[in-house]
Amino acid sequence: MNETFSDYIDLINTAEDFIRDGWKTPGKRQNYSITPAASSFTDPAAGESSDDNLESISAEIGGCTVCRLASTRTNVVPGEGAVNPVVMFIGEGPGADEDRSGRPFVGKAGQYLDKWVSAIGLDRQKDCFIGNIIKCRPPGNRDPLPDEIGACRHFLDRQLALLKPLTIVTLGRFASQVICSSEDGIGRLRNHTFYYNDIPVIPTYHPSAVLRNPELRSAVWDDLRRLKNLIESLASGK
Fold first, then answer.
1. 1: how many CB neighbours lie within 10 A of its CB?
2. What pTM does this model have?
3. Segment holding 171, helix H or strand E
4. CA 82, 145, 130: angle at the middle one, nearest 5?
């Protein structure tokens, strides 16, 4: 299947989602006038200081050799996007495309995530920050190990403290279990709203899982509608 035809099929599938679930593709991106809620991230052991910033954190990530993943990575993937975002999307870890480019969610799953963002009237660059639990690709895309999470966790917490996202969306079982401090599966977690340092968290399926199993699309659109309603409620102060 050539790329053009594949893109055409993706467009049809996305349209089917909207038609089935009662959505219309927004003709114009909605602008949310939002003052993000303050968060209370403190981690003295992580070395956070008053002059901490996203650039210095990215530089630290680039030079990190604390865990075994430093020896197998091509590039670190610190994350990217808006400052004070409306939504911070958190995945498990970089894949092969991300490892090559040093950027998060740039492969097929990332392109599908972009459609999710657009579907609720947001813009990836202007409204979102996208990152991962860990910043280096695990070999073979295996689950991160506990010590690897421990080596990276303070980076994520420091990013969250600076970004102060209005909401968080965790993508997939692993990221959701870590952020929500739960061992439940994603099918159970996605039915609830959690809080991470006072920031509301909505878990949903990982885009790559939905690409593998299109039957999950309806559940994801439900989660995105819930996210959209949450954003609108927070923006209006209700």
1. 7
2. 0.81
3. strand 167-171
4. 10
* Cβ atoms < 10 Å from Cβ of 133: 22
Q: Which long-range contacts (CB under 8 A, 24 or more apart) does 44-50 make?
A: 45/154, 46/154, 46/157, 46/158, 47/154, 48/154, 48/158, 48/161
Report which secondary-structure segment, H or E, holds 236: helix 217-236
H or E segment at 127?
A: helix 124-127
* The two structure tokens encoding residue 124: 């990836």
Amino acid identity of 133? I
Burial class (CB in 10 A: 0-12, 13-18, 19+), 140: exposed
Using an 8 Å Cβ cutoff, are 91 and 133 in contact? yes
Assess contact for 23 and 118: CB atoms under 8 A: no
Q: In terms of Cα–Cα distance, which of 39, 43, 36 is closest to 197?
A: 39
pLDDT along the chain (238 residues), means of 10: 44 45 38 34 43 94 97 97 97 96 96 97 97 96 93 96 97 96 96 95 98 97 97 87
